[in-house]
């Protein structure tokens, strides 16, 4: 049938398959766009290896664009606008394989103001001391936007492609998805290093990134702003050497997933904000400034290796009127500055079942500035300062952890505003300093713990805890030392075989001592406080086998 060139292509019939070839100089089609214009829906376009300089516009469904040979390199270069622009209807598909996209972005025209896209909602992360121009904040997407690939609808996949911005002269994103679904597989997306660029920028769309490398972007590797209905998956990728962040997740109640990926040598490895509920699973997150930065968000951080980050391995913090939650479980965190830091008055993370919180340069877990953490069933050991440190004004529920061999106190906390702290059913042992150190603490509970082989078991200074039903034994100095103006309740504890003193009450301290067992210590109890205490009643109400050191009779009532 002879076709009338003035008429549109005939409708695509299911089962038919058409092949077009682009071979500059000798082929039927000299440019990729010529072949697309001639193609009917469902056509496969095979492109020979050479350099192409014209942008490509795809608005026909079902097209497949491939390089002629698997080892060949089809290069498309452009200096302004998108190199490839795809605009399809929902459900329509397009596949691109084996291309190299090179954008030089020579235009220095100022990008238009963002308009009504939510103010600083989009990409405010680009504000950095290392970024001279906060360009992405002002980005308005249009068909003239500088980028390598722009997807505006449809179901698009790119495979075995390279995107390079290494010659770019002005800021730009490499890949933008504004609508639809984009699948990226076995691709490399390289930034410029000096000029601000973003590897992948997604706005309220679906995206799948598989087995790809995103690196050297000055304004972030992957930035995802998503809704709860969007499907976001990043899997088996390498996200390396990006400034600001490797991956940035935004969008309230959205649940993007990043799994089995390597995130290294970025500023923030992964940043999560705006009440996003990202899931981070099975990743190696190493040698970033911060491993995971959680700001006013609620992520699930599971089964990751988080090591060697120059600041925090995981940093939870609430800012302004926002709230930060989140749960981290079954991770290994070591050789960071602090493994985990929780910060801010509305910060309530759960830190549970992490098998290795160890060998960090400072604390294993640090809670500060009014935060409250739940710390449950973790292995916390051999950190260079404290195992768990609760800074004044913060609090925690600490339960069923093994906390041992830390260079300073295994657990240290204090300040009247941390009066909600509970330390329950932990094994706290082999510390080079105190098992538990409580300085200027309000009402807290230390209950049913095994505390042994530390320098001192428990040391209180100007504190008011309830210490009950603990086994405190084989510590190198005292079992319990009560100093300053402390007034604890010490009830139903076993204090055994401590090298110096079982229970030592000194300075101006006082308190309630009831039904404690003290034996096998060098001195079972030393009550040398200047405050008045009823020694006779203490002896009667506790089970003491051995020496009790007493103060001068003029100071304490012994009647």
Automatic annotation (TrEMBL):
<dbReference type="Pfam" id="PF13229">
    <property type="entry name" value="Beta_helix"/>
</dbReference>
<feature type="domain" description="Periplasmic copper-binding protein NosD beta helix">
    <location>
        <begin position="185"/>
        <end position="340"/>
    </location>
</feature>
<dbReference type="InterPro" id="IPR022441">
    <property type="entry name" value="Para_beta_helix_rpt-2"/>
</dbReference>
<dbReference type="InterPro" id="IPR011050">
    <property type="entry name" value="Pectin_lyase_fold/virulence"/>
</dbReference>
<dbReference type="InterPro" id="IPR007742">
    <property type="entry name" value="NosD_dom"/>
</dbReference>
<dbReference type="Pfam" id="PF05048">
    <property type="entry name" value="NosD"/>
</dbReference>
<protein>
    <submittedName>
        <fullName>Uncharacterized protein</fullName>
    </submittedName>
</protein>
<keyword id="KW-0677">Repeat</keyword>
<dbReference type="GO" id="GO:0006511">
    <property type="term" value="P:ubiquitin-dependent protein catabolic process"/>
</dbReference>
<dbReference type="InterPro" id="IPR051550">
    <property type="entry name" value="SCF-Subunits/Alg-Epimerases"/>
</dbReference>
<dbReference type="InterPro" id="IPR012334">
    <property type="entry name" value="Pectin_lyas_fold"/>
</dbReference>
<keyword id="KW-0833">Ubl conjugation pathway</keyword>
<comment type="pathway">
    <text>Protein modification; protein ubiquitination.</text>
</comment>
<dbReference type="InterPro" id="IPR006626">
    <property type="entry name" value="PbH1"/>
</dbReference>
<feature type="domain" description="Right handed beta helix">
    <location>
        <begin position="372"/>
        <end position="516"/>
    </location>
</feature>
<dbReference type="InterPro" id="IPR039448">
    <property type="entry name" value="Beta_helix"/>
</dbReference>
């Amino acid at each position: 049938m002879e076709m009338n060139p003035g008429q549109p292509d005939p409708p695509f019939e299911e089962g038919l398959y058409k092949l077009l070839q682009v071979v500059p100089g000798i082929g039927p089609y000299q440019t990729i766009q010529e072949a697309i214009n001639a193609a009917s829906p469902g056509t496969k376009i095979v492109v020979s290896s050479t350099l192409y300089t014209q942008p490509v516009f795809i608005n026909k469904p079902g097209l497949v664009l491939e390089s002629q040979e698997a080892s060949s390199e089809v290069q498309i270069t452009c200096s302004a606008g998108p190199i490839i622009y795809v605009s399809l209807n929902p459900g329509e598909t397009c596949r691109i394989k084996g291309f190299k996209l090179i954008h030089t972005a020579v235009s220095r025209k100022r990008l238009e103001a963002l308009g009504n896209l939510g103010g600083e909602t989009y990409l405010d992360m680009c504000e950095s001391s290392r970024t001279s121009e906060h360009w992405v904040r002002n980005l308005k997407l249009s068909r003239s936007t500088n980028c390598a690939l722009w997807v505006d609808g449809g179901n698009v996949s790119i495979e075995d492609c390279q995107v390079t911005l290494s010659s770019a002269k002005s800021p730009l994103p490499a890949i933008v998805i504004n609508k639809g679904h984009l699948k990226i597989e076995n691709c490399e997306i390289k930034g410029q290093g000096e000029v601000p660029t973003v590897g992948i920028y997604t706005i309220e769309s679906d995206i799948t990134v598989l087995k790809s490398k995103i690196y050297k972007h000055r304004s972030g590797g992957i930035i995802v702003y998503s809704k709860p209905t969007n499907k976001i998956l990043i899997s088996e990728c390498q996200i390396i050497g990006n400034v600001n962040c490797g991956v940035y997740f935004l969008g309230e109640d959205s649940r993007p997933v990043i799994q089995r990926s390597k995130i290294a040598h970025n500023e923030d490895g992964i940043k999560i904000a705006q009440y996003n509920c990202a899931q981070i699973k099975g990743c190696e997150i190493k040698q970033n400034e911060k491993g995971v930065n959680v700001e006013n968000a609620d992520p699930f951080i599971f089964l990751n290796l988080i090591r060697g980050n120059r600041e925090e391995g995981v940093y939870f913090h609430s800012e302004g009127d926002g709230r930060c939650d989140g749960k981290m479980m079954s991770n290994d965190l070591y050789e960071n500055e602090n493994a985990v830091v929780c910060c801010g008055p509305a910060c309530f993370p759960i830190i549970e079942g992490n098998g290795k919180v160890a060998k960090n340069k400072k604390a294993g877990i640090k809670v500060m500035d009014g935060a409250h953490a739940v710390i449950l069933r973790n292995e916390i050991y051999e950190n260079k300062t404290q195992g768990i440190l609760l800074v004044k004004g913060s609090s925690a529920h600490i339960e069923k952890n093994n906390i041992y061999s830390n260079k300073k106190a295994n657990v240290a906390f204090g300040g009247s505003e941390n009066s909600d702290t509970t330390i329950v059913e932990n094994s706290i042992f082999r510390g080079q300093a105190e098992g538990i150190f409580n300085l200027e603490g309000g009402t807290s509970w230390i209950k049913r713990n095994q505390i042994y082989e530390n320098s001192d078991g428990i040391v209180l200074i100007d504190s008011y805890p309830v210490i009950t039903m603990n086994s405190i034994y084989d510590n190198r100095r005292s079992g319990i030392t009560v100093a300053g103006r402390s007034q604890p309740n010490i009830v139903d504890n076993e204090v055994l075989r401590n090298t110096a003193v079982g229970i030592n009450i000194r300075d101006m301290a006082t308190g309630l001592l009831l039904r404690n067992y003290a034996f096998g210590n060098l001195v079972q109890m030393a009550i040398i406080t200047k405050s008045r205490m009823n020694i006779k009643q203490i002896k009667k109400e506790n089970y003491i086998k051995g020496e009790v050191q007493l103060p001068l009779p003029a100071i304490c009532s012994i009647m």
